[in-house]
Amino acid sequence: MVNLILYIALGFIGLAVILTLYRFIKGDTSVDRIIALDVLTISSIALIGLISHFAGRVIYIWTLHWFTVY
Amino acid sequence: MNEIIEIIGAVITLIGAIFLFLGALGLVRMPDVYNRIQTGTKATTLGTMLTLVGIGIIHLDWYGKILVLIVFVLVSNPISSHVLAGAAHYIGIPLSKRSVVDKMSKKPVLTVKKQTNITETSEKEETKQN
């Protein structure tokens, strides 16, 4: 059940990445491309979080080791 | 009990993913750069935060790292978008035709024709009265 919901979430994030890539390619202006890249970065953080769940490894969200509970 | 908590986490992750999708949709659909920046910041920040919170609920032992990620996203994303919007305005990227007010412009605030007509007529009336 949990994995099913998370796979649906993965699909939504995949669609978001595709739409953002469309804007990145189409552009209009260079600022549009920069915004698309920014959104792509933020989306990829969520995507990496999901991938780390499926892989079962926290190593993918390796942030500031000395601050965090390992 | 543990399974219910995991389902709650998964649902929060799903809501976050939907927010991310809607943000990306806004990035495609919005008419000008400034509106795209708005959708690209607010929706995606909330979406990423919810996604990470959901995963943190599923894996409670990861929560420290995820909290650090959330703080960085929450701090960096609005600042970068604010700077981008300022830079876009500075280099003169035009607003959409449907935009009403440009408060950063050095020209008078009213930019819509109808409103300028109103001010013009009111100025004329004032001069007549004087």
Structural overview:
The complex is a heterodimer of chains A (70) and B (130). Chain A has 70 residues and is mostly helical. Chain A has one domain (2-67). Helices cover 73% and strands 0% of the residues of chain A. Chain A has two helices and no strands. In chain A, α1 runs antiparallel to α2 (30-55). Chain B has helices at residues 2-29, 33-58, 63-90, 113-129. The model of chain B has no long low-confidence stretch (mean pLDDT 81).
Report a brief summary of the structure:
The complex is a heterodimer of chains A (70) and B (130). Chain A has 70 residues and is mostly helical. Chain A has helices spanning 2-26, 30-55.
Give structural attributes.
heterodimer; A: 70 residues; mainly alpha; 2 helices; 0% strand; elongated; B: 130 residues; 2 domains
Low-confidence segments of chain B, given as residue ranges, are: none
Strand content of chain A: under 5%
Report the end-to-end length of chain B measured between terminal Cα atoms. Answer: 79 Å
**Overall radius of gyration of chain B:** 22 Å
Number of helices of chain A: 2
Pattern of helices and strands of chain B: HHHH
Sheet having the most strands of chain A: none
What's the shape of chain A?
elongated
Structural class label of chain A:
mainly alpha
Which segments of chain A are poorly predicted (pLDDT under 50) over 5 or more consecutive residues? Answer: none
